[in-house]
Amino acid sequence: MILGRIGAAHGLRGEVRIEVRTDDPARLAAGTAVLTDDPLVGELTVARLREASGRATISFEQVTDRDDAEAMRGLLILAPAQAEADAWYPEDLVGLAARGDDGRPLGTVVEVRAMPAHDVLVVREPSGARTFVPFVEAIVPGVDVAGGFVVLTPPGGLLADEPLPEGEDVDEDGPVGDGPEDDGPEDAGHEDVEA
Predict the structure, then answer these.
(1) Closest among 98, 152, 163 to 125, alpha carbons compared
(2) Structural domains in the chain?
(3) Is the backbone of residue 128 left (phi > 0), alpha (psi -120 to 50) or beta?
(4) Per the record, which residues fall in region Disordered (predicted)?
(5) CB neighbours (10 Å) of residue 1?
(6) Cα–Cα dist 164/162, whole Å
(7) C-alpha torsion sign, points 77, 83, 88, 89
(8) How many whole angstroms separate alpha carbon 169 and alpha carbon 194?
(9) Max Cα–Cα distance, the chain, nearest Å
(10) What is the phi/psi pair of residue 86, to 5°?
(11) Three-class SS of 4-21
(12) Per-residue pLDDT tens for 19-78?
């Protein structure tokens, strides 16, 4: 599970900016062990997490100077897998079946992408369409790595293969607001797939 992404060094004593990706600050409390996605860095112990002016900074017991802090820029901070039974890493999700909450097949997770607001699952639907599904609890309420699937409750129009709810406006090209000119970097959407 991704807890955050390390940004630029801050100060001279090893503190770094952090993009926090967890709703539970206790996961980054002082004394907590975390992992990074770089095996050479391995496990770190949080010394302090603080927020000021809307920005978060973190320091680790093992990092005490600016040079080491700069070398970690861009690394992901991960929860240790043993810390909780339902923890997972992005690579664990690739290949999982995507199902509706009623069990209907919706596709396969082919990638997990880090986006500014939250991660997205890239799901290849049965038709071959690749769709960005926001990886938030309201849309992905269940992840069962051992069982080999994720549960999706997508809003109407998110998945290319799913029918729109009754009364939804459509035009000749699909749902209103679903054209390529409306896709922003944080929007869920579809990728064109060559036949």
Answers:
(1) 98
(2) 2-82 (2.40.30.60), 90-191 (2.30.30.240)
(3) left
(4) 157-195
(5) 19
(6) 7
(7) positive
(8) 27
(9) 60
(10) -100, 20
(11) EEEEEEECCCCEEEEEEC
(12) 888 777 778 888 888 888 877 888 888 998 888 777 888 989 999 889 988 988 988 888
Please tell me the pTM assigned to this model. Answer: 0.48
Q: Alpha-carbon distance 147 to 157, whole Å?
A: 27
Q: How many angstroms separate the CA atoms of 89 and 145, rounded?
A: 10
Task: Report whether 183 contacts 125 (CB < 8 A).
Answer: no
Cα separation, 116 vs 168, whole angstroms: 29
- pLDDT score of 174 more than 80: no
- Identity of the residue numbered 18: I
- Token pair of 20, please? 């926090």
Q: Mind spelling out the 3-state secondary structure of the chain?
A: CEEEEEEEEECCCCEEEEEECCCCHHHHCCCCEEEECCCCCCEEEEEEEEEECCEEEEEECCCCCHHHHHHCCCCEEECCHHHCCCCCCHHHHCCCEEEECCCCEEEEEEEEECCCCCCEEEEECCCCCEEEEECCCCCCCEEECCCCEEEECCCCCCCCCCCCCCCCCEECCEECCCCHHHCCCCCCCEECCCC
